């Protein structure tokens, strides 16, 4: 017998096992700046003006939720934020009206126009939250409502004949009101933010900050930040979503210094040094809502409306909604067997006959 035969077979087997080298993926070339070589004006920069005109025509949606115990001035603060009566005050209730036995969800829509730009604002209130003797799982109706809005949007998206502009009822921002105890967060605060921070942008605020001294306010803010960090609770703006160094630098300052915003709300005006200002009247003077020496309302307003409103919407769509959407599609839409995502009953798949043994 030839001794070379087994070696030949082994070599052939080995050649079959070794996979062929895969071609390396093509790496896109970095764009080369050719500004210096332009022979004249093109007009690329007008895209910003085009976008502005389109936004002014169509307007945009912004949905803000307020959560916290009654009596913390949630409605007053939202009215102050948007300088209009966009949220019903609890003080308008009759004295005979009982505190809701369960958490209710109440959404009120408004159209606000400023400088030719229309915003369809929806304020979602949650009366009854944290007001019971037993507040166990009282965040569940709120989480359910948030997910229901994602579900509505998803169903519109997967429609064959979907609308040109899908109505957006998704919650873009949740202001969570912390009681100004000066001590620490309640277990309910931690449980709510732990559950809801995964599905919505939470912005924590310390309500009625004028009940604390400057030293108490500073210490309480630090304590709240520490408790949130120890419990692994991420509030907006989340570190992992910073897009570049500029975003990180700006957001780090907000996370480490401003959060949680210690605020005072008021929709009443008073005369101070010849000017009409929003404020709260006390025996020792006027607390000016928009004066940074008195409270951090102006920081909260600038943050939510003037610098991060678009980002709140984008994080809601690209992160929270996409997480929900991916899970639903992975679960086959979570619909009963035989139903498609569109809610139409699909024809049963014909059974494949098993091969018969001969």
From TrEMBL:
<keyword id="KW-0547">Nucleotide-binding</keyword>
<feature type="domain" description="Septin-type G">
    <location>
        <begin position="58"/>
        <end position="331"/>
    </location>
</feature>
<comment type="function">
    <text>Filament-forming cytoskeletal GTPase. May play a role in cytokinesis.</text>
</comment>
<dbReference type="InterPro" id="IPR030379">
    <property type="entry name" value="G_SEPTIN_dom"/>
</dbReference>
<dbReference type="InterPro" id="IPR008114">
    <property type="entry name" value="Septin3"/>
</dbReference>
<dbReference type="GO" id="GO:0005525">
    <property type="term" value="F:GTP binding"/>
</dbReference>
<dbReference type="InterPro" id="IPR027417">
    <property type="entry name" value="P-loop_NTPase"/>
</dbReference>
<keyword id="KW-0206">Cytoskeleton</keyword>
<keyword id="KW-0963">Cytoplasm</keyword>
<dbReference type="Pfam" id="PF00735">
    <property type="entry name" value="Septin"/>
</dbReference>
<protein>
    <recommendedName>
        <fullName>Septin</fullName>
    </recommendedName>
</protein>
<comment type="subunit">
    <text>Septins polymerize into heterooligomeric protein complexes that form filaments, and can associate with cellular membranes, actin filaments and microtubules. GTPase activity is required for filament formation.</text>
</comment>
<comment type="similarity">
    <text>Belongs to the TRAFAC class TrmE-Era-EngA-EngB-Septin-like GTPase superfamily. Septin GTPase family.</text>
</comment>
<dbReference type="GO" id="GO:0005856">
    <property type="term" value="C:cytoskeleton"/>
</dbReference>
<feature type="compositionally biased region" description="Basic and acidic residues">
    <location>
        <begin position="1"/>
        <end position="10"/>
    </location>
</feature>
<feature type="region of interest" description="Disordered">
    <location>
        <begin position="1"/>
        <end position="29"/>
    </location>
</feature>
<keyword id="KW-0342">GTP-binding</keyword>
<dbReference type="InterPro" id="IPR016491">
    <property type="entry name" value="Septin"/>
</dbReference>
């Amino acid at each position: 017998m030839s001794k070379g035969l087994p070696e030949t077979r082994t070599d052939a087997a080995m050649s079959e096992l070794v996979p062929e080298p895969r071609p390396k993926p093509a790496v896109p070339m970095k764009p080369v700046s050719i500004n210096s070589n332009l022979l004249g004006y093109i007009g690329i920069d007008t895209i910003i003006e085009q976008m502005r005109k389109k936004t002014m025509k169509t307007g945009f949606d912004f949905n803000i939720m307020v959560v916290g115990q009654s009596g913390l001035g949630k409605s007053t603060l939202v009215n102050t934020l948007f300088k209009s009566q966009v949220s019903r005050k609890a003080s308008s209730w009759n004295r005979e009206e009982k505190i809701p036995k369960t958490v209710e969800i109440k959404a009120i829509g408004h159209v606000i126009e400023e400088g030719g730009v229309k915003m369809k604002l929806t304020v979602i209130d949650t009366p009854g939250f944290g007001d019971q003797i037993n507040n166990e799982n009282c965040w569940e109706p709120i989480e359910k409502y948030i997910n229901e809005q994602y579900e509505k949007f998803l169903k519109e998206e997967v429609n064959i004949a979907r609308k040109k502009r899908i109505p957006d009822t998704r919650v873009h921002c949740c202001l969570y009101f912390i009681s100004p105890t000066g001590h620490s967060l309640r277990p309910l605060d931690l449980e709510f933010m732990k559950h809801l921070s995964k599905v919505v942008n939470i912005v924590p605020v310390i309500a009625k900050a004028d009940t604390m001294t400057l030293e108490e306010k500073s210490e309480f803010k630090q304590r709240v930040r520490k408790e949130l960090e120890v419990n692994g609770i991420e509030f907006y703006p989340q570190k992992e979503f910073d897009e570049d160094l500029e975003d990180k630098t700006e957001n780090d300052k907000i996370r480490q210094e401003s959060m949680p915003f210690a605020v005072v709300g008021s929709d009443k005006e008073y005369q101070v040094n010849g000017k009409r200002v929003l404020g709260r009247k006390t025996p020792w003077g006027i607390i000016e809502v928009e004066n940074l020496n008195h409270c951090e309302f102006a920081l909260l307003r600038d943050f939510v409306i003037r610098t991060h409103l678009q980002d709140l919407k984008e994080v809601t769509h690209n992160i929270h909604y996409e997480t929900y959407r991916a899970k639903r599609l992975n679960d086959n839409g979570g619909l009963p067997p035989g139903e498609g995502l569109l809610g139409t009953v699909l024809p049963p798949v014909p059974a494949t006959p098993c091969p018969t043994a001969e």
